[in-house]
Structures are given as C-alpha cells and as structure tokens.
Amino acid sequence: MNTNYPLPENIINILEEKKMTHHNSFEELIREGGYVPPSIDLLVDAISALSMGKNILLKGPTGAGKTKFAETLSQLFNQPMFSVNCSVDLDAESLLGFKTLSYEGEKQVIEFIPGPVIHSMKHGNFLYIDEVNMAKPETLPLINGVLDYRRTITNPFTNEIVTAKEGFNVIAAINEGYVGTVPLNEALKNRFVVIEVPYIEGEQLKALIKSNTSLSDETTIDLFIKLSGDLIQAVSQGKLSEDAASIRALLDACDLSVLIPAKRAIQRSIIDKLDEEREREFVKNLTETLF
What per-residue string of b and e applies to 35-61 under the rule 16 or more CB within 10 Å gives b? Predict the structure, then answer.
C-alpha cells in the first residue's frame, strides 16, 4: 500500500509520547483505523493540532471518510473515542448525561449517568461530534467552555465543575449545504482548526477498496476507480450532488459486485439513493459506458 510515509520525525515523536503501541508500524495503525489520507499533510496537520490541545473540524463532502479519519486519529493517539451524533433533537442530556433512579441496597437514590462530553472529559479521551451543523444553534453553546482554553464545564444537572483530564481532545465533522444544516456561528467556528477532507482517489482509493471490501479483481477495481473519478468530476462541475460521489456508497457497490453484477450493485448502492431523476440517469449512463 502506497501511503507516502514515513511521517516526519517530530510527528513520530508526538505519537510515541502518546503511547503508540510499538509493535505496530504507523502504516499498520493507519490501516487499522480505516482512513488512508490522500495527502500526508492532512495527517500531519491533524496530529499537530491535537497534540497542542486544539480542536479540529473536519470539513468535506459526505462519504469522504471524515469519521474514518477521526477513528484513525483515535487509533494513532491510543485513545478511546466517544461520539455525539448531532440532530435537531440534540439536547443537554444527549451531550452531558441525565439523572435516573437507582438503588443502593434497598434505598432508592437519584444517580447521574454521564453523557459523552462529561465521560470523555473525566477520562481524558477523544470526543467526536458528527454533523455538528445539524444541531440547533442554541444547543452547542452549552459546551463553549469545553471547547476553549478553559476546558471546563459546570454540569447543570449536578452543579459539579468538570475540568477535562489531560488527553481530552475534540474532533468535529461538518457537511455544508445539506437540508437541515445551519451555518456555524463565529464563536463556535473560532474554537476549531479547520481541516478540509477531500475525496480519496487513484492509488489511495484502490488501497481502500482492497482493504475494506471483498472485491479483489483488478480489472473491476480499476473500473470502479474510473467511475469514482468521473462522479467526483461531475460533482465539481455542478452536474451531480455530493451524495453521488460518496466513497462510502462506492465501497458498498464494490462489495455487492462480488455477488451480483456490478451495474446492479451500483444501482442499489449509488443510483437509487439520488433524489433527482436527472442525476439518476446521468450516473446510469456513466455506469453503462464503463461496465
């Protein structure tokens, strides 16, 4: 697998300080995390920011691998990662935790069950906030103090002041322009270092297909890579929505093509997900040409 490594010496030192497991090479660890970066700069910049205690915002199209990127960073830093999936229903309890009734012996007591924010702060773990711009604008300011230099929050359910343990880091992900999303306010955006995550193409995509799907036929893999490149180009030209070029959907199609014809695999995994008939016909024509 050609991933353009090794990493720079200063980045290796950072990861070794974070107790990277020495029996693994960096390439093995990255493969275990599941994200092969199209540029080493993406990895270096993300590791640098996290090692300095900065929050990072992964920004890019759907299916480009933002969640896998976060999981790979978690793997490299040898840190468990707790996740928050944002939606319009996200509230303080979803972020911070909730109270419930429990028993101590025969005595009934009120117990607080920590949510992902409190848990990751107290244990010094990674916190991943997915689709951060899907949350209502009034919800995320609850954790502004967690995201700035204070790394502190007063838990409204217990009045406990929680300060993040060393090792706590925040990674968020964003897809812009989707239905239900709202622009991030400046106060929130300024708490992050932004890293653009592009689509994976070429040799990196080939390596991903080989390591993450059951497809092994070189000719078919090359056809899928060509299809992906054509879809990405069509998205950049405004002919298709970003959903059409999702790498996640492409990997599903690769997997299905082992058992059913490739054209039908693409139909199920990519074409039928598109809302507009014009887009469905466009991708169908591309598929017919290639396969």
Answer: bbbbeeebbbbbbbbbbeeebbbbbbb
Query: 88 versus 114: which is more confidently predicted?
Result: 114
d(CA 75, CA 72) in angstroms, rounded, equals 5
Rounded Cα–Cα distance for residues 100 and 97 (Å)? 10
The residues, ordered by sequence, that sit 6+ positions from 161 with a Cβ below 8 Å of its Cβ are 152, 153, 154, 155
SS3 68: helix
- How many Cα atoms within 13 Å fall on the side-chain side of residue 271? 19
Separation between Cα atoms, residue 28 and residue 30, nearest integer Å: 5
Output the pTM of the full model: 0.80
Q: Collapse the DSSP code of 240 into the 3-class scheme (helix H, G, I; strand E, B; otherwise coil) and give the result.
A: coil
Residue 140, pLDDT > 90, answer no
Which residues are registered as beta bridge partners of 84?
A: 129
Q: Per-residue pLDDT tens for 150-191?
A: 999 999 889 999 999 998 999 999 876 555 566 677 888 889
Tell me what pLDDT residue 1 has. Answer: 36
Q: How far is C-alpha 3 from the chain's CA centre?
A: 19
